[in-house]
């Protein structure tokens, strides 16, 4: 009976030591959850990001600099996102003012690939979860509402932001904000 008590105490001490070690060696002391993420405003330089594309290749925000680009945050379960995607694909294909469209899916890769294939979307789609949430926050949408779009000029300056579904009139307004900036 005494050995059983010693074994029980040893197990409790071992578990407590494991939790203590985990607590003391965790990265950044958990500050990533309490630290506010600075968000950009119109007229400021876009934040950098690194996200995987559907093929697993890594993309950086700086990969898109040199021409204007519209980044659109979306998810497969977001109906307004789904409605605007064909228009965004047409916009990407026509490339007014050299514009590129980039979709950033806040979703699981296993859902996004087949979804994008079914809709026949040809613009770059990046994916992620927590990392994409941080990018979305840095790009000015800490509330996390979707869809959310940001227009960046060729020099990497944010020129326009929009929360909600896009339509052609809004896109024309956004592109007009580029006039005289390039």
Q: What does this 3D model show about the protein?
A:
This protein has 182 residues and is of the alpha/beta class. Strand 3 (69-74), helix 2 (79-94) and strand 4 form a beta-alpha-beta unit. The protein has helices spanning 2-25, 79-94, 109-119, 130-138, 168-176, and strands at residues 50-53, 58-60, 69-74, 100-106, 125-128, 148-152, 158-163. Helices cover 38% and strands 19% of the residues. The protein starts with a helix and ends in a 6-residue tail after the last helix.
The run of helices and strands is HEEEHEHEHEEH
* Overall pLDDT confidence: 84
Alpha plus pi helix count: 5
Which fold name is given in CATH as the topology of the largest domain? Glutaredoxin
Catalogue the unreliable spans: 15-35
Layout of SSEs?
Elements (H helix, E strand, L loop, with lengths): L1 H24 L24 E4 L4 E3 L8 E6 L4 H16 L5 E7 L2 H11 L5 E4 L1 H9 L9 E5 L5 E6 L4 H9 L6
Parallel strand pairs: 3-4, 4-5
Antiparallel strand pairs: 1-2, 1-5, 3-6, 6-7
Please supply descriptive tags for the structure shown above.
seven-stranded mixed beta sheet; 5 helices; Glutaredoxin; 182 residues
In brief, what are we looking at here?
The chain has 182 residues and is of the alpha/beta class.
